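quick one: 3-amino-D-alanine bound model?
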Amino acid sequence: AGNKVIIVGASGAVGQEMLKIMEERNFPVSELKLCATERSAGQEMLFKGKAYTVEETTPASFEGMEIAFFAGGEASLEFGPLAAEMGAVVIDNSSNFRLDPDVPLVVPEVNPEDVKTHKGIIANPNCSTIIMVVPLKAIYDVAGIKRVVVSTYQAVSGAGAEGITELTEHTRAALDGGEVVPSKFQYPIAFNLIPHIDVFQEMDYTKEEWKMVKETRKILHDDALQITATTVRVPVYRSHSESINIETKSKVTAEHAKKILADFPGVIVQDSPADKKYPMPLYTSGKDEIFVGRIREDNSVDKGLNIWVVADQLRKGAATNAIQIAELLIKYDCLGKR
Ligand code: 2RA
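yep, here:
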């Protein structure tokens, strides 16, 4: 028993995590194919103790496959629609199809039923969006939300494996007095913050900022939601953090918000100022939950909350969410159905 699964982009930061999480969650796999670009083909990767050789992705790679995970990048543009046509359900971690009205954009704790509307492709939201929308949904269901202001503190691994290498190299160079040559990032990332993630677009917002706006509205099915974002790269290896200000439609006290959040699936509240208890990226990495703390009423408006949210963006922000979507497809029996 199990499903025929292909991972495209298996050797990258998210692909590796997908494989690890499938193993951890004992995801039912009857056949596994690991693919990537020609450059990464030939590498060996382990799944449940067995070695698999990464192959170059070609149209034939999708023959007979039931679930096709795309870890990110351009590959899903080239092969996603074809994989779906050949009968697989595509779960795509890139931004290529996220805003397509025919493609559900799913966070299992928030809009699980949307997977049932798929026409062959399901999109996995952007990492910063996933991490924000889960706690937002908890509040949204109880009090409604009028406006959200979010600022992010995003780890270098959000930019892939090269981002990790660059933080190490820049830190070493800064300490040893060596030369710092930014390549993945626009400026030296060690001992710095860079308020620029992805490309600049309309109104001088970055694409990462627009993703947080547009994807959140789509996932919550609320085009009227007012939301604005500032996204910042920080010298942290792993786990994105977010400061989120939420203006609610009805009043929620801080105590009530703590309870609502603690009761919501996938959320862990870490909030005890007296004990210096609040989420931090160093301690959330490697975990699947979204950690929320510093839960306070906004002193400047009638109905508002401030929360501080941290989660491992390679896991819940990417790979875990994708595997959870596949689990929903099995649960709702909507694999192979169009
Ligand atoms: C980042 N959100 O952290 C992006 C990855 N999709 O760069």
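Residues 126-128, 154, 158-159, 197, 208 surround 3-amino-D-alanine (CB under 6 Å).
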